[in-house]
Amino acid sequence: MSDKSAVVEAPPVIQAENLQKRYGDFEAVRGIDLTVRKGRCVGLLGPNGAGKTTTMRMIMGLTTVTAGTLTVFGKPVNAIGRADRARIGLVPQEDNLDPELQVRQNLEVYGHYFRLPSAVINERVPALLDFMELTEKESQSVMQLSGGMKRRLVISRALIGDPELVILDEPTTGLDPQARVLIWKQLQALKREGKTLLLTTHYMDEAERLADHIVIIDGGKILAEGSPAELIREHVRGHVFDVQKPLPDALANGRFECEDIGDSVLFYVEKAGELQQELSKDVHYLHRPANLEDVFLRLTGRKLREA
Amino acid sequence: MDWIIERVPYSVAVWWRHFLVWQKTIWSSLALQMVNPVLYLFAFGFGLGAVIRDMGGLDYLVFIVPGMMAYSMMFTASFEATISAYSRLTMQQTWSAILASPVSLFELMVGENAWAIAKGLFSALGVVIVASFWGGIVSLPGAFLSFFVLALAGFTFSACGLAATAHAKNWEFISYFMTFWVTPNFIFSGVFFSIDRFPSYVQALAWLLPTTHVIGVIRPLTSGQSLDPVMTILHILFLAGLGGLMFTLAYRKLRSRMFD
Q1: pLDDT of A1 higher than 50
Q2: Counting Cβ atoms within 10 Å, is residue A54 exposed (0-12), middle (13-18) or buried (19+)?
Q3: Do A64 and B260 count as a contact with CB atoms less than 8 A apart?
Q4: Separation between Cα atoms, residue B60 and residue B49, nearest integer Å
Q5: Cα-Cα-Cα-Cα dihedral sign, residues A244, A248, A252, A257
């Protein structure tokens, strides 16, 4: 990728316009526009029930589109043939591995679903086990694996058909930091290989690290999108001051953008100095650079979402 | 023809997955599949056989062996297409993993059918092996031919099972299927005694059960009697028609259940 403009101009792998999905009376997705270009990693962020998984399922052709247009590899999603479906790898939210089979067999069996020749399967399976550091476990049954190993195996399985587009639905939820770091490293390796990634996650650090472009959705609609840096600049400026109540008078006059979160107030400012000079010694506060989590919470609210 | 050839490898891949899983628990699976019909064979063959000298002009053992063959296919294929398939659909999510690959729902279902048929043929083979040592098979070539009929029956039973699985909202529904479909197929289809002993309205009911039609063809085959060509064709048509109908129902329901 020496030519940067080539990346920007890369053809869209996924293109959705006013995409909608209704289950009976429930509108899961209410008009989403989304473009995922070749070689990019797009992160779909949203609370539980925001419509992330439904959007992914529509892209995979696993659920029908109620309204709007959705093209994958330049073709309408309902007209996608087997050859194009084989170019997509899915890492679903749940671990639907074959628990009775060995680690290795899980990949082999999945390779047959892609009608891969045995020679290709025999070549790819060890490479994928190595990629996700599962080589030592190859003869164990899936039942004996830890949660992190199962997740890594699900990711390996999604790669058996050497897909151009990899769709990952919460790939690291519930994993320990070591497993997450390994998965991040390998997803970045996939990106370098030129694969297109579409990712959902609840972890902002994960999105910040992996995604070039982030789409925040809630209630089936897009709330904001952009690169992590753009989103932070636009919605929470550069710095966050978490100031304990009662507020000093200098801050209570509405000069600064702020958000009341109960016991304290969050102030969003571009330059730390602007606000710092207003804080006397007896005010309790926390100062930190703004991050994507601030953006997310500001946009989607702080109320709990029950799954 | 190309339409079929293109799809076969994908259904075979599903079949192969089930085979590998089955292999892991081969001994308990074998016991489950073979012991059950063989136990019945002993109980009824020895037990009742000592009392009942003849049934429908046949030695009772010769009478009951084809019944047990049909029963073992009926039970195995129904079990596989409901209890096993429903757990692959719900708890294990095996089907959703498969459908995320290039395998289509149709190919997945054909693979499920083919696997249920294979397992059913296998348990029927167990019955034939035991019965032939014991003098329950008069015509071995007839027994061989009856496996083709059993394969068709396996399609019918597994298609009925998949239709139930497709409509099932919980395990209770599956147990209704067992009680109101599998058990009547066992009791009212002439496995143990000729259905002409029933009052006429029960006989009419019996003719709606596929097991009656399976036995209608394979009992003459294994006992070395001649087949009535017209009745044989009707039996076969019934099995194929019911299987085709149920497969279509199952396909439609699963498609809307999984994709809408």
Answers
A1: no
A2: buried
A3: yes
A4: 6
A5: negative
User: Do A89 and A167 meet the contact criterion of CB atoms below 8 Å apart?
Assistant: yes
Q: CA B27, CA B24: separation in Å to the nearest integer?
A: 9
Residues of A in contact with B17 (CB under 8 A): 98, 109, 112
- Chain A, 116 to 155: residues with Cβ < 8 Å from chain B are 141
Instruction: Quickly tell me which residue has 């009697």 as its tokens.
Output: B225
Q: How far is B165 from chain A (nearest CA, A)?
A: 19
DSSP state, residue B101: T
Q: Please, what is the end-to-end C-alpha distance for chain B in angstroms?
A: 30
pLDDT at B207: 95
Q: Which residues of A touch B14 (CB under 8 A)?
A: 113
What letter does residue B195 receive in the DSSP assignment? G
pLDDT at B184: 95
Q: What is the pLDDT of residue B50?
A: 78
Give the chain B residue nearest A160 (alpha carbons): B101
Q: For residues A152 and A134, what is the distance between their CA atoms, to the nearest angstrom?
A: 8
**What is the Rg, in whole angstroms, of the alpha carbon atoms belonging to chain A?**
22
List the strands of the sheet with A165-169, edge to edge: A88-91, A165-169, A196-201, A41-45, A213-218, A221-226
Q: ipTM value of the model?
A: 0.91
Closest residue in A to B103 (Cα–Cα):
A113
Residue B29: per-residue pLDDT: 77
Question: Higher confidence at residue A169 or residue A2?
Answer: A169
Q: Considering only alpha carbons, which residue of chain B is nearest residue A98?
A: B94
Is the Cβ of A112 closer than 8 Å to some Cβ of chain B? yes
Closest Cα in chain B, distance from residue A299 (Å): 30
Q: In chain B, which residue's Cα lies nearest the Cα of A81?
A: B102
Is A98 within 8 Å of B104 when comparing Cβ atoms? no
Contact flag B96-A101 (C-beta cutoff 8 Å):
no
Least reliable range by pLDDT among A112-116, A191-195, B59-63, B207-211: B59-63
| A103-117, A278-292, B96-110: least confident range | A278-292
Cα distance between residue B189 and residue B195, in whole Å = 7
